[in-house]
Amino acid sequence: MLQNLRELYQYRALLTALVTRELKARYRNSVLGFFWTFLNPMLLMLVYSLVFSVNRRTEFPHYTYFMFVGLLPWICFATSVMGGTSSVSDRRDLLTKVRFPAQVLPATVVAVNAINYLLSLPLLLVAAWLSDLPFGWPVLLFPVVLGVQLLFTLSVTYLLAAFNVGFRDLQYIVGNVMTLWFFLTPVLYRAADMPTGARELIQYANPMSIVVVAYQAIFYERTLPDFAALGGLLGLSFALMWLAAGVFERRREEFAETV
């Protein structure tokens, strides 16, 4: 794991170049261009808000803002995992070059989506203002929660990217799993409103619920997140990263030939 992290740091200039190129190319030839960074989450927010706050008459206050707090990090996670799964298998043009560091490709996808997430945060500020919910001091813990989320996302993405090279069906399976995963994550509902058994099951079996609930704590409830849960997720992320790094290292020589 440490070797992979050292190599990422060693090739940081290449990583920066790939991230910059991807950000420029993402909305190239699009009329609205960069503004899709804001429009995509806003459209999702409006759809889910209409369905759940109007049709189902959600009872707790400021539901739209509550949902937006969880929706933004989920979009970052889901797009990173789905895009990162095929990031190695789709780049034969780069992998066939001499000594190209394949681990840069999943990291590029995660970095691009993390930047898009950060750029969409002004929308959260506007939503808080419209909901008359000023930020409290716990929002200062945002970098901590973000760091745990990105480490978990990167570890999952590395693992799936390595396996997808030899099993291309995985990228399609992941797309369907992410839909189910979304509804098992308390983005559209409060974890506290669930029966105790179901709440504990989702909390411990679904790492992203820990992340989303932590964001809801610091942005919506203006309280401290569950540090024990975040610490457990941090440990799980390191374990997954160690596993992913091992798989990635063992299969790296096969990548150029397999893709």
CA radius of gyration is 19 Å
Low-pLDDT residue spans: none
Shape verdict:
globular
**Total of DSSP H or I helical runs spanning 4+ residues:** 12
Round the mean pLDDT to the nearest integer and report it: 80
Number of domains: 1
Helix and strand string, N-terminal first? HHHHHHHHHHHH
Strand count: 0
Largest sheet, strands/sense/barrel: none
End-to-end Cα distance, whole Å, is 24 Å
> Helical proportion?
over 70%
Helix and strand content put the structural class at mainly alpha
Task: Offer a few descriptive terms.
259 residues; globular; mainly alpha; 12 helices
Précis, in short:
The protein contains 12 helices and no strands. The protein is an all-alpha fold and 259 residues long.
Task: Annotate the secondary structure layout.
Layout: H1 2-10, H2 12-26, H3 36-55, H4 63-85, H5 92-95, H6 104-119, H7 121-130, H8 142-164, H9 170-183, H10 196-205, H11 207-221, H12 227-258
Helix pairs in contact: 2-6, 3-4, 4-6, 4-7, 4-8, 4-9, 4-11, 6-8, 8-11, 8-12, 10-11
Structural write-up:
The relative contact order is 0.14. The longest helix is centred in the C-terminal third of the chain and has 32 residues, at 227-258. The protein has one domain (2-258). It contains twelve helices and no strands. 74% of the residues lie in helices and 0% in strands. The protein is mainly alpha-helical and 259 residues long.
